[in-house]
Amino acid sequence: MWKGRFQTETSNLVQRYGESISYDWRLYPYDIQGSMAHAAALQAAGILTKAEQRAINRGLRDIQAEIESGEFKFRMSLEDIHMNIESALTEKIGAPGAKLHTARSRNDQVALDVRLYCRAEVKKIAASLNRLQSALLTLAKNHPGAVVPGYTHLQRGQPVLFAHHLCAYLEMLDRDLERLRDCQKRINVMPLGSGALAGSTIVLDRKLVAEMLDFPAVTQNSMDAISDRDFIAELLFVLALVGTHLSRLSEDVILWASAEFGFIELSDAHTTGSSLMPQKKNPDVAEITRGKTGRLTGNLVSLLTTLKGLPMTYNRDLQEDKEPLFDSIDTIKLALDVFAEMMAVARVRTDRTREATSDPFLLATDLADYLVLKGVPFRQAHEVIGKLTAHSLESGTPFPEMTLEDFRQFSDAFGADVHQVLDVDTALKARKGIGAPSPTNVNRQLSRWERRLKAGPGL
Ligand code: ARG
Fold it and tell me: Structural domains in the chain?
């Protein structure tokens, strides 16, 4: 491609070192789509005849078919997908192929291809996020009455409906969707026409290209346009955060599936056995996801590190943007899909959740609130219930088995109605403020999610 200036061939080692075709080949549909739009702009500017444009389009379509059928021979010596396609086109159709690169550089070409790729993938990821939300909603609706202890510091805190716990993840995933939609705005800007860095003396109709490729906007500074990878960094951040959310869910699932918790049973289809211990049923999907989250974070850090030292404008370092991007996108799609499949058919073991929520200490805060309603200042009530807890532990008498006299030894604000507080259903019903887990509120959350998820991810 640059044979004019050079006397010797590129060293084989340099070719191996610098090639990107082994991974950027997957940009081919976007490269072809972009080239067709560029050819249309060249024709409109009088650089190509209509017949030449048609030859180019035909050639590109043939190349696409060859790539898809596996016939196409990618050549490492041609470095990347852009030169592989251009060279194959010229071999096929001759002179018109050699005109295609007029007023275009690989710099604006790769920027365009990656934006088109990201735009398409963001839509798929949004759909997968939506499916996982639906799966969690299904799991919640399959176990409407299940109550679990809510934890802080991984110590039992207060009772919540299991559905409320799951809806917390629906909220997280919904913020991820919102971030994707926002990120898409900055992906969806058309860079072609920026040339190598300073546009071209052959002026093309960039708005026509944008329209053909369905971009609502075109970039406004040629130097920024070819060196900007902010949209990739943003997307990698969003995906790292999706991974972080999945990793937290993984940790919950791993705990819940343990003998110690026993709150859920995963299906055989989503667990693995041990090669040695015949009794094992391992939550590998969750562990793998927790593990892969390290890669997602690493990919973000990798790109930010690549970008931080770059002077304007294009530097070959930028070729390092693609592998982390492809890896994060492949990883997150699979993780979301496998999680959706696994969670939709998980079974809550209500015998075990009931046993765990029968722990009377889960209602210690409710007892303190009871005293507050009888006029005791909260700090004092907190201390009274703390002492009551110590007494319960020492004497081995759970709260519900204590008599009114026992209670009154700690505060004379206790009355005959104290035992009514010591009931999980009462405790849940009382939590009726906005966002709190009363059954009415949780049902409202579930119907809200049902409506929202039916409307789709909005991308
Ligand atoms: N493969 C290159 C990349 O991914 C394409 C752009 C090459 N541009 C250049 N001036 N060498 O960044």
Answer: 12-102 (1.10.275.10), 107-356 (1.20.200.10), 361-432 (1.10.40.30)
